[in-house]
Amino acid sequence: MISSLSNSKVKEIQKLQNSQRYRQQSRKFVAEGWRLIKEIPFHQIERIYIQTSQMEKLTSLDSSRDWDIEQVSDQVMKAISNEITSQGILATVHMKSHMQQSYSTSHPLVIALENVQDPGNLGTILRTADAAGVDLVVLSKGTVDLYNPKVIKATMGAIFRLNILKDIDLCSYVKDIKDRGIQIIAAHLEGTKNHYEGNYVTGTCFLMGNEGDGLSEKLSALASEYIKIPMRSDAESLNVAVATSILVYEAIRQRDTYK
Q1: Of 13, 97, 134, 201, which alpha carbon lies 20 to 30 A from 44's?
Q2: Helix (H, G, I), strand (E, B) or coil at 114
Q3: CA dihedral defined by 182, 183, 184, 186, rounded to 10 degrees?
Q4: What is the pTM of this model?
Q5: What are the beta bridge partners of residue 72?
C-alpha cells in the first residue's frame, strides 16, 4: 500500500493531473470514478489506484481481467485526486496510439471546434457527439487540452468511444474535406438562414467557435454557408456546447426523416 506522499507514483499522478506538457510527454492521463473507469478499454489502463476503504467495491470490475491495482491510503488519495469529494478510485490511462481520419459512411457528420477553452464545454460537446453518433470531432490547435481532467470527467466516457483529431490546423483540414465534397456549415452571428432551414443530409461539417470570439474570419471564409440559431430575447449568443447540440440533433432529425 502507498502511504507516503513522497512516493514516485504519487508524484507522477499529480503531474499528470496538473501538467498538459507532462501528459503529452508521457502519453498518459488520469481518469477518476467507478463509472468512468468501467468505460476505459482494458488495454489502455496502465494501473488502478484505489483507496483501501473502497477495496470491497472491486467486485464491480470485470473479474476476468488481470487488473494492475495499487492500494493507497486516504491521505494519498486526497493528494492525487482532482475531485473535491473523491470516489476513492482513479486510473492512469494510456492515450490512443493513433486516431482515424476516415469515415464509415459516405455522408459523414463532423464537428470542428476552433479554440474552445472551457473544459466543461468540450467535455459536454464530446458527450453529445457520442450520443448522436457523430463520425468525427476535430479540435483546433489552441483548443483546451483533450486530456484535461475536467474534460475527461465531463465526457462521461465518450472520449473512449469517439473518433477525435486534436491539435489540427483547421483551415487546412477544412479546405481538404471541402474539396472532397463535404459541406462546411459555420454557426455564425451573421448567418442569413436559421439552423432548421439548412440541409444536413449530405456530408456535413459544423464549424463551432471560441466562447467569446466565435469563429475566426479566416476559418469562417471557408464555410459553404452561415447559419444561426434564432433567439427570442436580446441574448447575443448561446453557449457553444448548447449550440452544438442543437445543430447536431437537427442534422440527426433530418437524416432519420429522409432515410
Answers
A1: 134
A2: coil
A3: -150
A4: 0.92
A5: 2, 51
